[in-house]
Description:
Blueprint: E1 2-6, H1 14-23, H2 25-30, E2 33-34, H3 46-51, H4 69-86, E3 92-96, H5 106-116, E4 122-129, H6 132-145, H7 157-164, H8 166-177, E5 182-186, H9 197-204, H10 209-214, H11 228-240, E6 244-245, E7 248-249, H12 256-262, E8 268-269, H13 273-295, E9 311-312, H14 319-344
Helix pairs in contact: 5-8, 8-13
Amino acid sequence: MTIYFHAGTPKTATTGLQVFLARNREKLEEHNYVFPKFLGDTNHVRLTYYGRDGGTIPPNLVEPGLNKSEGILAFRQRMEEEFKTEVTPGRDYILSNEHWGVSHTADEIRRILSLLTSTGQDVKVIMYFREPSEYFGSMYSTNLKHGNTRDLDKPDERSLNRRYNYLLICDRWARLVGEKNVTARLFVQEKLHKQNLIDDFLSLIGVPEEVTDSLERKDEPLNKSLDYLIAGFLLELNKRIPRIIEDGVNFERKGLPELCQSISRREAILVPEEIRGWIREHLEGDLSEFNAKYLGGDEEWPFPPYSEANRKPVQTPTQEEMVEIFCEFWRMQKYIKQQRLKSKL
Length: 345
């Protein structure tokens, strides 16, 4: 049978897909598709911790003790034993962790593939790709939620190749799993099956339409990007209240990214034309080859043009706007407390 590994990329409605799969876990299993819990309830984040080289694992609360080599080795051994127990022949498995949709080292990809193939299943890798400048702007928003203190500026060469050079990303996987086992899709609404990522993904892994139509769906804003003003507000706040302190994660920031996300309702972040032009200039040749090799197309640039509509440059709030934002925080916190009380009644 087959392991379908949804490897990202980030900022392509991955959270929504993962929540959908988790919500329909039992129904999918009735049709022989398993979305396992032992790797993470929704996002299979333990695959990140297993595969990444020592020293590149971010601070986390999911798997403590991964800051030392002996802790990493012990964790990998536990994972290998769990994997062989939980993943059994005769069923198809859906794994999802968007952190693999960036360019990893060959050793890291070999390590994760060794785990995925350890029980004899075939592995097919599925990745969705967004227009690079849109992806870049959305990643800036995500990085702010994670404590970034830098202004929006051009990515460096390493970051450009790791995240936005889709040819390099697909080629690394294809060299180890085979080109026919790598499926690349554009995260462009009109190019998705039924113009929807969930329908597109389920069709790729062979879930029958009648099963797809019977699964529960719930539209909800997940991992929403920050607007241009809240982005400027959080950038200034990050400089004063860092996410990481000496002892690890700074718990004084608990709930801050979610609050910022919940009150973001203005125009989205605009990536300046200068940065967009630089990204395109550096990627155009490789993305043309990516398009021909993995999408079967012949355009030089396979994505629709970046739209400036309803976007503004990141802006630091004025004193008056800062007061209004704190008032919105207060109102939102009050609302959240009321909803929690209602849920307990």
